[in-house]
Amino acid sequence: MTQQELEKYLWGAATALRGTIDAGDYKQYIFPLLFFKRICDVYEEEYETALKESDGDLEYAAFAENHHFQVPEGAHWNDVRETTVNVGLTIQESMRAIEKANPETLFGIFGDASWTNKDRLSNEILTNLIEHYSQHKLNLATVPDDQLGNAYEYLIKEFADDSGHTAAEFYTNRTVVKLMTMIMDPQPGESVYDPTCGSGGLLLNCALHLKEEGKEYRTLKLYGQEINLITSAIARMNMFMHGIEEFDIIRGDTLSSPALLENDELKKFNVILANPPYSIKAWDQKSFENDPYGRNLWGTPTKGCADYAFQQHIHKSLDKKNGRFAILWPHGILFRDAEAEIRRKMVKSDQIEAVIGLGPNLFYNSPMEAMILVGNTNKPEERKGKVLFVNGKEDVVVNKGQAYLTEKHINRLYRAFRDFTDIPYYSAVASIEKIMELDGNMNINFYVEKENSGNNVSFSEALSNWEKSGRELKESMQNLLEVLN
Known about the structure:
Blueprint: H1 3-15, H2 27-53, H3 58-61, H4 77-81, H5 87-101, H6 103-106, H7 123-133, H8 145-163, H9 174-184, E1 191-194, H10 201-212, E2 221-226, H11 229-241, E3 247-251, E4 261-262, E5 265-266, E6 271-274, H12 285-289, H13 307-316, E7 324-330, H14 340-348, E8 352-357, E9 370-376, E10 386-391, E11 397-399, E12 402-404, H15 407-419, E13 427-431, H16 432-437, H17 459-484
């Protein structure tokens, strides 16, 4: 099959579910079923290879050493295919048997979908799904890891598009992911962490980045935590589908129960990439005040917004000698009043390397403008005491409400970061002293001059004008409310 044919074939299974379950729930059935088929087809392929090597020795062919994963007797895809009644129960029992036979690698990987609910999934629907996937072999000879991995990423994007706003939790714009990975430049043997990893796209891209450069990608250590059960399972499947086996993705709440620990402290990482959920209101602010891991480095964020709780967790999880991060955030964390004190302390720590503003619609299903906050615990000498601001607002293409960066945009933004210099109307290097003169406000527009703004407005004047506009808006709103009353 060509890549396009493979993608069409894999996505075709979703059409069997239309009208029976919500689009947002497709993924909890399709992904586990696809992974189940892959495991069984590869097991068969490995069995046949071992059989040839041993001149037909059946016992040798079944040895665990000859297989990536164990598929117990009675739990094979073909066993499910032969079932006509209680198909859902057979699928569920087979998946649990495979998880049990591979406890260190596959425990809980198939999620907790309700396969036995016949009101949602009748025997007929499940049989149609099984038969659809039975049309082609998904072994390594027919579909190599690269091809299946790309198709899996395609499915993630399709499910995101199909399910609307529910997709934001597990999908990050892949063109932004590429830019973030280039900026981080992970190296063989380094550790990479995503505290809110979704379907694992940011982590995976680091390995693929090294692979594309012809470097040893298998020594990269990938770590992630994800609060949603099915999403964390999809992330793990995503790794295996791409042929990545050295990773540790744990399900859990990063803020209340960080799971990646070492000697009773937060584990430290070389690279942290993340697209945290923004402005979470339901979080345990009280516990963060007395955080046992010391993550309240600069203070406790407001109850209504956990953004700086995630940001401080990231700083606390960095390797002190060589720790870098690139975090996708909305612009609000650069200038919101409620977090001013925390932000001032963050700026003074001299770990912020760059603020790269992006265009609108790059957050999934949101018109909000995005930016990448880049940090480094060991900034190069020439960058110490300075922060680069980039206004890449125009470097974006919007198509049918969805935005993406072209190769040209990615390269331009990356070069701006790499060169770390002033480019008229595009980038500016500001000293920490200058930022503190503006009370730690990191609004990109305060540092990168607009092309039509003229050259006669100072930073202090810009701040004064901004504050004046705020007061005028507040007054006009009060007047309007009085009129309405």
